[in-house]
TrEMBL record:
<dbReference type="InterPro" id="IPR027417">
    <property type="entry name" value="P-loop_NTPase"/>
</dbReference>
<dbReference type="InterPro" id="IPR050093">
    <property type="entry name" value="ABC_SmlMolc_Importer"/>
</dbReference>
<keyword id="KW-0813">Transport</keyword>
<keyword id="KW-0067">ATP-binding</keyword>
<dbReference type="Pfam" id="PF00005">
    <property type="entry name" value="ABC_tran"/>
</dbReference>
<dbReference type="InterPro" id="IPR003593">
    <property type="entry name" value="AAA+_ATPase"/>
</dbReference>
<dbReference type="GO" id="GO:0015697">
    <property type="term" value="P:quaternary ammonium group transport"/>
</dbReference>
<dbReference type="InterPro" id="IPR017871">
    <property type="entry name" value="ABC_transporter-like_CS"/>
</dbReference>
<dbReference type="GO" id="GO:0016887">
    <property type="term" value="F:ATP hydrolysis activity"/>
</dbReference>
<feature type="domain" description="ABC transporter">
    <location>
        <begin position="4"/>
        <end position="235"/>
    </location>
</feature>
<dbReference type="InterPro" id="IPR003439">
    <property type="entry name" value="ABC_transporter-like_ATP-bd"/>
</dbReference>
<keyword id="KW-0547">Nucleotide-binding</keyword>
<protein>
    <submittedName>
        <fullName>Osmoprotectant transport system ATP-binding protein</fullName>
    </submittedName>
</protein>
<dbReference type="GO" id="GO:0005524">
    <property type="term" value="F:ATP binding"/>
</dbReference>
Length: 286
């Protein structure tokens, strides 16, 4: 079931097209990565989903209803928003940062509620009394996710959530992200320029180039069934794909002697075997 639909969405700034007739259905409970180079339209597209921007043409629907017919504050209560620099208020404690969205929306801001929130992202309640600057980058990003979860939204929008972190922290948080209780069953749309991050975290990837949707598909299909030469070239130059050509399935504990790439495009293996190989490769690569 599609929770978000985009139908021929177009957007220009100063007569320069930024989004070119984007159409896509995002299903309830899936994680979608908006992937592309800088200037491809990723963040602009994300901001159309919660009405921070309005399309010049086309429409965006939430649960079948055009969002331009919904009051923005009602829509945004159903969509948590996590940004790159976290955006915690520096003069407020972690508890106060988490309490704010609850009070704004008239929800309970009890101590039990706040403790439950911070535990959903794998942090101990002892952090509630600390100030943002007393937390590491990874801990701050977890608090940002907890704040986005405060109103129990159906959708979480994330704009380059891990890009400002150092490499070790980023990889650790990516691993933890897959298992955070608070994100279970949520629909997540994430902007990233990191191919590996997109392949590791997303169920489907929307590859954007110059405002055009080049392909919206599973990671495996992007690799083995590229919709165009551009899609193939975009991935060909990335270290992830190069390693897939170099590492054999046997190195990952699978009986096949094929490289990971050739195993994924082979008709000899079942889809369940391909998924297992892909997951083993991602764990190996990280």
């Amino acid at each position: 079931m599609a929770i978000i639909q985009l139908e021929n969405v177009q957007k220009s700034f100063e007569q320069k097209p930024v989004l070119r007739r984007i159409s896509m259905d995002i299903h309830e409970g899936e994680t979608v990565a908006l992937l592309g180079k800088s200037g491809s339209g990723k963040t602009t597209l994300l901001k159309h989903l919660n009405a921070l921007l309005k399309p010049d043409d086309g429409r965006v629907c939430f649960q079948g209803t055009p969002i331009d017919t919904l009051k923005p504050h009602i829509l945004r209560r159903q969509m948590g928003y996590v940004i790159q620099d976290v955006g915690l208020l520096p003069h407020l404690s972690i508890e106060e940062n988490l309490t704010m969205p609850l009070r704004i929306t008239g929800r309970s801001a009890s101590q039990d509620t706040i403790i439950e929130l911070i535990e959903l992202v794998g942090l101990h309640e002892k952090y509630l009394n600390r100030m943002p600057h007393e937390l590491s980058g990874g801990q701050q990003q977890r608090v940002g996710i907890a704040r986005a979860l405060a109103t129990n939204p159906q959708v979480i929008l994330m704009d380059e959530p891990f890009s400002a972190l150092d490499n070790i922290t980023r990889i650790q948080l990516q691993d933890d992200f897959l298992n955070l209780k608070g994100l279970a069953a949520k629909t997540i749309i994430m902007v990233t320029h990191d191919v590996f991050e997109a392949f590791k975290l997303a169920d489907r990837i929307a590859l954007l180039h110059d405002g055009e949707l080049m392909q919206f598909d599973t990671p495996i299909n992007l690799l083995t069934k590229p919709a165009s030469n551009h899609v193939a070239d975009f991935l060909k130059n990335d270290h992830l794909l190069l390693k897939m050509h170099q590492i054999t399935c046997h190195q990952l504990g699978h009986h096949s002697t094929k490289t990971v790439f050739h195993a994924l495009e082979s008709d000899e293996l079942k889809s369940t075997e391909k998924l297992a190989i892909m997951q083993a490769f991602l764990n190996f690569h990280s």
